[in-house]
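Box 4.2: Ligand-aware structure prediction
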Amino acid sequence: MLRTRVLGGPAEDNALWVVADSGQGQTRLLLDCGARVLDTLPFAEVQATDHLLLSHLHMDHVGGFDDFFRATFDRAAPTHAWGPPGTARILGHRFQGFWWNHAPELRGQWFVHDVHDAHVHSFRFEAQEAFAVAHDAGTRPHDGTILTTPEVHVQAVPLEHHGRSLGFILREESRERVNTAALAGLGLRPGPWLAALKGGATGDIDVNDQVHPADTLRAALMERATGESLAYLTDFLLDGEQQARLAPLLRGVQTLYAEAQYAPEDHALAARHEHTTVTQVAALAHAADVPALTLLHLSRRYRAEQWAEMLQAAKAIHPHTRFPDGWLAG
Ligand SMILES: [Zn+2]
Ligand SMILES: [Zn+2]
C-alpha cells in the first residue's frame, strides 16, 4: 500500500510524504521539502526517508532542506535526491552551508540525480569529504521510470514552469494475494502451507493433514491485486496542449495530488507564471479519469473564505476533489 500524508497547511509550503509498504519492506519518499513541512513528522521517520523527490528548486519547494539534511546527512544507508537538471549543483551548495570540521568521522553518502528528459545524470557526495566534491556517478538512459525499489516504481513527468519542473507518478507492482473468500469457500484453514503456496511450491502440499495438488490450490486461491498508485504534479503550465499531453500519462492513476495555485478567474496570471488554476487541474483529472483529486499548494493571495469557493469550482468539474483533511476546518 501507499500511505500518504500532505505536509504543511493551506497557503503554506506543502510536501507529500509517502511510505510504500509491501508488507515485507518499506520505501519512504518525500516529495518536495518547503519550509517547516517536516515539523509534524517524527525525526526517526525523516531519518528513515530514502528518497527526496524535488519537483524543482524554487524556494517554496526546497526551503526546508536543512531540516531534512539534519536528519539524514550521516545515515548508514545512502540518501538519494532527485530533481530536474541543476539539482546536484544547487544541493551541492546546500551541503556546503555548514562547518564540517568533524567530517573525517562521518560515513554519510548522498546521490543526487539530475533527471533530464531521456537520461539521469548522477553525482555522489561523501560526508567524509565534507561534501566538497560532486563525484560524477555516471549517466543512464531512462524511459520515464527513474527509480524502482522492491516496493514502488517512480516515473518522472516533465512539466513546463519557466524551465523544467518534474511531476512524479508512484506505482506499486501488482501482487499475488490469497482470495480469502475462496479460502473460506473451500473450508481450508490458513497455515504455513499458504506461505509455501505463495512461494511457488509445486507437487503436493500438506494442508492441515490433507494432501492437495499445489497447482489446483493456486488456481483456486491466488489472485492478482493491482497495486496502488498516485501522481504528484505541482508548479506547471496547464493549457490545452499540456492537458492533451498529460492526461494519457495519468490514466490508471488512483489519486492525483496537484497544485491549486490560482482561482479560475485568475487564469491569465496562472498562464503568465506557468502555474494552474483549480479548474484546469480538475479538468485534467476529469480527462484522465482519475478517481480522486487532492488539491494543495494554495496561493497566499486568497482569503480563507475563497478556498471553499475554489474547491466548489473544481468539484463542479471533477466531483471527487478534496483538500487534505483539516484544511477547511473552522
Ligand atoms: Zn511552488
Ligand atoms: Zn515554482
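In the box above, the bound molecule is zinc ion. Residues 58, 60-61, 235, 297 surround zinc ion (ligand 1) (CB under 6 Å).
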